[in-house]
Amino acid sequence: QSVLTQPPSVSGAPGQRVTISCTGSNSNIGAGYDVHWYQQLPGTAPKLLISGNNNRPSGVPDRFSGSKSGTSASLAITGLQAEDEADYYCQSYDTNLSGSDVIFGGGTKLTVL
Amino acid sequence: QVQLRESGPGLVKPSQTLSLTCSVSGGSISSGSYYWSWIRQHPGRGLQWIAYIHDSGSTYYNPSLRSRVTLSVDSSKNQFSLKLRSVTAADTAVYYCARVARGVYRFDTWGQGTLVTVSS
Fold first, then answer.
1. Burial A51-89 (b: 16+ CB within 10 A, else e)
2. What does A24-51 look like in DSSP terms, one character per residue?
């Protein structure tokens, strides 16, 4: 079970807007650590999609945006396209009694209908 | 542009040691601003961070794997390596190496990944 909780799947029709949530706790997102998002197209390595809560690396369309509030974060995709069908992962950092760890969400599969 | 590439055996026998190397090109592993990391993905599953290392030699491990993992860096070859001891079928996964921005823990560059199967 992942420390960061994501819905297993979301779906939307082309052109629609979808959001993917990432719920953490006071030892990770709520402690102020950045949340990053990755896109993993089928059969490929993950790719950095959103960094530092809402910064898009060069080449990432502005249809993708991120936000963070309290112990949660969200990824929004507007103007959904068929090529957006992929797995999406949130990632942050966690400090607890056993140490400090990089943590990933369990991933969300986006289906474009 | 920095590129990473994993290499190593695709098949390892149970109880043996899995050894992988990540070769870094287009930039120096000794830049100081980054950690160099390993992540794995079990078939059909999510991502699991294994560990990362700084070119100074400082290492940080996932607590669940710490007892079996060793990372090392060879700055002269611009490479870093993973050793995972006493493997079982549960260690069958795609292994990725990645560059991590220090301070923000952002995995900004990934290798293509290599599938390692543990089987006799």
1. bebbebeeebeeebbbebeebbbbbebeebeeebebbbb
2. --TTTGGGT---EEEEE-TTS--EEEEB
Among B107, B112, B114, the residue to mutate for chain A (most A Cβ within 10 A): B107
Verify whether the Cβ–Cβ distance B37 to A99 is below 8 Å: no
Q: How is residue A18 written in tokens?
A: 């979808």
Which of the four pLDDT bands, split at 50, 70 and 90, describes residue B57? Answer: confident
Distances (CA, A) of B93 to B5, B19, B36: 16, 13, 19
Q: Is B29 left (phi over 0), alpha (psi -120 to 50) or beta?
A: alpha
Kindly state the tokens that stand for B114. Answer: 């290599």
The token pair at B101 is: 């921005």
Task: Please tell me whether residue B22 adopts helix, strand or coil conformation.
Answer: strand
Taking alpha carbons only, the member of B1, B7, B30 closest to residue B97 is B7
Using the Cβ of A56 and the Cβ atoms of chain B, whether some distance falls under 8 Å is answered with: no
Report the C-alpha gap between A46 and B98 in whole angstroms. Answer: 10
Amino acid found at A112: V
Place of tokens 């069908």: A85
From first to last of its 113 residues, chain A has per-residue pLDDT tens of: 678 999 999 999 999 999 999 999 999 999 999 999 999 999 999 999 999 879 999 999 999 999 999 999 999 999 999 999 999 999 999 998 777 889 999 999 999 99
